[in-house]
Amino acid sequence: MKREKLGFHQTFILSALPLAIAVTLPTPVRAAVLASSNFNRGSEGWKIAEYNAGNWNFFSPIYVPRIFGSGGYLTEPDREQGSWFWDAPGKFLGNMSAAYGGILTFDLKQWQTSHQSETTSDILLMGGGRTLSFNTAYNPGRGWTGYNILLHESFGWKNLATGLTATRNEMLAVLSSLSALRINGDYRKGLDLSSIDNVVLNAGPTPTPTPTPTPTFTPTPIPKPASVPEPSAVLGLVFGALSAASVLRRKQKRKVLNSNLS
């Protein structure tokens, strides 16, 4: 069941995360902004997407310009024909796989908070032939109401076709080919006036790369070759052998001569 929040406040959905999930999810050091709209200079290409009888129809929203230092925003009266959503422009679409694990933030408000609708698809992500939906924990109040939506399967995203919890592969498949990002603007049964401001799509944490260890190379020991005598040593051996042979021959000659004389 939806809870109504009245008055000016800022409530963060992330505070409702179970501790176990909050601990296991990586925390980015600094979130890179992939796309944003603050509406200070116009509607920035946002549209109204109305779903009626199985078809989507698109309209231009009403732009409220910046006045006396207060930032501009978009507003739209309730449409009785069907449910309607704020439809993000092209800068929020395409390959947004970097947004996996990141946070989608925006501010909403509505003119009246009575007769609230029991909506179940407050945010739609479309892409890769799939539609993922997310049901916020509370409807916007009459003052600006802040939302911080984690783009992670553990946060409660559903496959709209099956009603099952979205898987990691489904989240990545949709974000990598994102063709539509829509935020609900129709919370009340009957006439109403809804507004949106400060939409930011933040990148998820970049995993810290594990350093590749430097491979240790142990060379195979090569046996040393047998010591080879220096050339001078070889010549010395040769001359020594020749001298010894010469001495031996002289001794033999003397021995023969002495035997002949005797």
Helices and strands in order, then pairings?
Elements: E1 3-4, H1 19-24, E2 33-37, E3 47-52, E4 55-59, E5 62-64, E6 73-77, E7 83-87, E8 103-110, E9 123-127, E10 130-134, E11 138-139, E12 145-150, E13 158-159, H2 168-176, E14 178-184, E15 193-202, H3 231-261
Fold and architecture overview:
The chain has 262 residues and is an alpha+beta fold. 18% of the residues lie in helices and 29% in strands. The chain has 3 helices and 15 strands. The chain has helices at 19-24, 168-176, 231-261, and strands at 3-4, 33-37, 47-52, 55-59, 62-64, 73-77, 83-87, 103-110, 123-127, 130-134, 138-139, 145-150, 158-159, 178-184, 193-202. It has a 7-stranded antiparallel beta sheet with strand order 4-3-7-14-9-10-13, covered by helices on one side. Strand 5 (62-64) and strand 6 (73-77) form a beta hairpin. It starts with a strand and ends with a helix. 26% of the residues are buried. Residues 1-24 have low confidence and may be disordered.
Number of helices: 3
Helical content band: 10-25%
E-strand count: 15
The whole-number mean of residue pLDDT values reads 78
Radius of gyration using CA atoms only:
42 Å
Taken from the alpha-carbon principal axes, the silhouette is globular
